[in-house]
């Protein structure tokens, strides 16, 4: 049974995506499974937390306010395989899936390595080296693999600084693991298909160039590693 109260619509939208506990609310219209088009079509009050653009339409992502689990809603995992689900529904589900990445502040002689992407979501942006975590892969292993593939680099043992979450400019929800480590000696060989340029910077310049800003704890860990001698071997 739904709570009483009006829907908390923060911005105008063309379609509404309601999901909770692996369940998605969809309507049947002309033989298709579709997203609600207005607050009036929603089965309960809700709170919009974001609005993204899909197929030229504003899709509101919202948390439903329910008193009980909606057993009669559609299972999110099943919907993409249903022929009657319209493309906008499938795109919305895809866009809400959590992506996992891992990055590292690679340090050498007190400087931090930044890379400028040559393609994809990081094209022309300065960021810490790293990338997507593959299915079944540990984030630390992903960092080691990405640096080997993109830079021909090897790392000393990693220190996990913490995790973070953000939304990319395209609306993807991303959770990251952030590491810090000394980079082993040796010439870097950037793969031009992945990396346009590299740059060694101090932490002040990193703060200015990066979208991610260190909090005090992260910066303390980074500086501790940066000012300590690298392990041997």
Q: What is the H/E string?
A: EEEEEEEHEEEEHEEEHH
Rounded radius of gyration (Å):
22 Å
Strand residue content: 35-45%
- Reading off the top of the CATH hierarchy, the class of the largest domain is best stated as Alpha Beta
The number of helical segments is: 4
Concise synopsis of the structure shown:
This protein has about 230 residues and is an alpha+beta fold. About 20% of the residues lie in helices and about 35% in strands.
Overview of this protein structure:
This protein has 233 residues and is α+β, with helices and mostly antiparallel strands. It has two domains: 15-96, no CATH class; 98-226, Nucleoside Triphosphate Pyrophosphohydrolase (Alpha-Beta Complex), CATH 3.90.79. The chain is built from four helices and 14 strands. Strands 8, 9, 10, 11, 12, 13 and 14 form a seven-stranded mixed beta sheet that branches. It has a five-stranded mixed beta sheet with strand order 5-6-1-2-7. Strand 12 and strand 13 (173-182) form a beta hairpin. The model is unreliable at 1-9 (pLDDT under 50).
Provide the fold topology.
Elements: E1 15-20, E2 23-24, E3 27-29, E4 32-34, E5 46-54, E6 57-64, E7 74-75, H1 87-96, E8 98-108, E9 111-117, E10 126-127, E11 130-132, H2 139-151, E12 159-167, E13 173-182, E14 195-201, H3 203-209, H4 216-226
Parallel strand pairs: 1-6, 8-13
Antiparallel strand pairs: 1-2, 2-7, 3-4, 5-6, 8-9, 8-11, 9-10, 9-14, 12-13
């Amino acid at each position: 049974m739904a709570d009483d109260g009006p829907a908390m619509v923060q911005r105008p939208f063309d379609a509404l995506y309601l999901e909770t506990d692996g369940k998605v609310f969809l309507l049947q219209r002309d033989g298709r499974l579709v997203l609600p088009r207005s607050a009036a079509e929603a089965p309960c009050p809700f709170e919009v937390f974001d609005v993204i653009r899909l197929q030229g339409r504003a899709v509101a992502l919202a948390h439903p306010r329910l008193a009980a689990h909606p057993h009669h809603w559609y299972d999110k995992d099943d919907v993409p395989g249903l022929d009657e689900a319209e493309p906008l529904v499938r795109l919305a589900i895809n866009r809400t899936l959590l992506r996992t990445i891992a990055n590292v502040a690679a340090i050498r002689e007190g400087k931090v390595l930044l890379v400028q992407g040559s393609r994809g979501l990081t094209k022309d942006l300065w960021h810490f080296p790293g990338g997507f975590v593959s299915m079944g892969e540990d984030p630390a292993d992903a960092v080691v693999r990405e640096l080997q593939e993109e830079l021909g680099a090897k790392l000393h043992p990693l220190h996990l600084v913490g995790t973070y979450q953000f939304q990319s400019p395209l609306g993807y929800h991303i959770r990251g693991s952030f590491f810090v480590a000394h980079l082993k000696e040796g010439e870097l060989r950037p793969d031009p298909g992945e990396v346009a340029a590299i740059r060694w910077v101090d932490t002040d310049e990193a703060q200015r160039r990066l979208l991610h800003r260190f909090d005090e704890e992260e910066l303390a860990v980074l500086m501790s590693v940066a000012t300590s001698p690298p392990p041997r071997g």
